[in-house]
Design goal:
Rhopdopsin 7-helix transmembrane proteins, 8 helices, about 5% strand
Amino acid sequence: MCFSPEASFTASAVITTVGIISLKKSPNKESKIMACIPLFFGLQQFAEGVVWLSLLYEQFSFLKQISTAGFILFAWVVWPFWIPYAMEGIELNQGRKKILKWFKYIGLMMSCTLGYALLFRDVQASILDCSVIYSFNVSDDIHKTFGLLYLVGIIVPTLISKASKTWLLGAMNLIAYFGTKIFISNRILSIWCFFAAITSIIVYWIILDYNKRIQETTYSSE
């Protein structure tokens, strides 16, 4: 994320709080899966706060590899699978639910592939201007291909779902992605995740609407 370790830790605290509140408002397993998104974002931002400390202060340098791996673990392994998984869970339309299930399986394959890269490719973190950048040993073609698949895998499910306001989550992440890509593309992984994390408040909003839909469905069936 841009700015400083303090910004990362502050974002982590705020986002994690949103996640805890969202979990408390979640009436079932499906909505709890959705509510985990802010919690995971909070942990991811905490990991990057530690990355910042390891890069800025010698006494924390021993934490560099594990904190870098922790941040990339969420970016590469968790999100490609978890986003479509969460969208499938809160989707009430059975036709769209089947489509989202396929995105979940595709996301799982992406997570496994990128998890392999995390284990066997040398991922390095460094500071450029006031941002953390992450570099890894893959060709530009592979990087672009997986970048496109990654984008499709986590944005499209939010637009397919008919659950209230999920489209807003996808739209906000899409704007954040392309805004970062256009203006500061070499720091896209860190900064885009920061702006995407800010949209976690939308998750809370989605869960409140999901609760309302569940109650309406329950009342209509009685």
